[in-house]
Amino acid sequence: MVIIPLAFLTPREEASAAKVSTGTPDLDEMCGGGFYKDAIALLTGPTGAGKTLAGLMFANAAFEAGEKCLLYTYDETHDRLVRNARGWGMDLEAMERSGLVRVVSSYPEEASLEDHFLGMRREIEDYEPNRMVVDTLSALERIVAPRGLLDFVIALGAVLRQGEITTLLTSAPSGRFSSTPTPAIATEIASLADVNIEIRFVELSGERQRTITVLQSRGTWHDQRSSDALVFGVIGVKSSGNWKERATRCMGTLLHRSAKHLLSQDNSAGPVCSVE
Questions:
Q1: Cα angle at 69 between 217 and 273, to 5 degrees?
Q2: Going by DSSP bridges, is the β-strand pair 237-240/230-231 parallel, antiparallel, or unpaired?
Q3: Is the pLDDT of residue 29 over 80?
Q4: Which of 2, 107, 225, 261 has the fewest C-beta atoms under 10 angstroms from its C-beta?
Q5: Is pLDDT above 80 for 125?
Q6: What is the C-alpha separation between 150 and 125, in angstroms, rounded?
Q7: Strands 69-73 and 101-105
Q8: CA 58 – CA 35 distance, rounded (Å)
Q9: Poorest-confidence range of 77-86, 92-101, 212-221, 228-237?
Q10: 100 pLDDT above the threshold of 80
Q11: Sign, CA torsion 136/141/146/152
Q12: How far apart are CA 255 and CA 48, in angstroms?
C-alpha cells in the first residue's frame, strides 16, 4: 500500500492550455499537436514495440527545448540505456552533463513499492523537472499486487499534476509479469492518464508490423483513424481483411525517422540500431 497525503490530492486550480512535443512530429500530429503541458500519457506495447525509444525521444525533445526531464528506467541499467540511446543517435551522457536530463536506473526488486514512490517524490522535489518518463511501469508488477500498483499510479499522478510535469509512462500489456491483474484494474490505471496510446504487432503478408492507436486524448482532437489501427512499417496504401485502405504510419518508422534526423546532425553518435 502507498500512503497518499491528502495534500497531494488537491487539484491545481488551472489547467494548462500549452502543448509540448512528444519528440516525434507525426505522433504530435496524431495527438492533436502534442501533449498538454500538465498531461500524463500512457504508452502501452509489447516487448520490442519501441517503448524505450519513445521515452528517449520524449526526453530528447525536452533537452532540445531547454527543459529538464527526469527519466526513470526499471528495465535497463544506466550504461545499457546510454549505449542504446547512442545507437539511436542520441548522446544521453551529454544530455545528463547539461543538467537537462537526469537518469535514475533501478530494478523493482531493490525496494518496496512505497520506497520507490518516496524516492521518486524526493527526486521530483530536488530536480524540479518539466517532464518525466517512467519506463516501464509494468515492471513494478513483479513486486506488487494490482491494487497496490493502482495506488502507486494515483499517488504519483497527484505529485506530477501538482508540479505540472508532462509525463510519459510506458507499460507492457497488463499481466505480463503477474497472473493476478484484472481487466478492471488495468482499465482504472488507463483511466488516470490523459492520453492513451497503444502499440500492437500485426501480421500482414507474412511480416510482423507495428500498429499505433491513439485511444484517448482528453480535451483535444486526436487522429480518428486510431479506431482502425494504423499499420506500421509500410509507407503507402495497404488493404487486408478488415483493414481499411489508407496511408499507413509506423511508430518504429516515425521514431527511426526522427533518430535518423539526429544522426544527420551528428554522425559521431554511432549507427542506428533496431527498435527495442
A1: 85
A2: unpaired
A3: yes
A4: 261
A5: yes
A6: 22
A7: parallel
A8: 11
A9: 228-237
A10: yes
A11: negative
A12: 13
Question: How far apart (Å, rounded) are the C-alpha atoms in residues 184 and 186?
Answer: 6
- The cell for 234 is 509500410
The grid coordinates listed for 179 are 497472473
* Block residue for cell numbers 539511436: 88
| Cβ(86)–Cβ(270) below 8 Å | yes
Helix (H) or strand (E) holding 61, with range, is helix 51-64
- pLDDT tens column, 136-164: 898 998 998 888 888 899 999 999 998 99
Cα distances from 216 to residues 29, 98, 132, in angstroms, run 14, 34, 20
Which is nearest to 140 in space by CA: 101, 110, 97?
A: 110
Confidence bin at 46 (pLDDT 50/70/90): confident
Contact in structure between 240 and 221 (CB atoms under 8 Å): no
- 180: preceding bond cis by omega (within 30 degrees): no
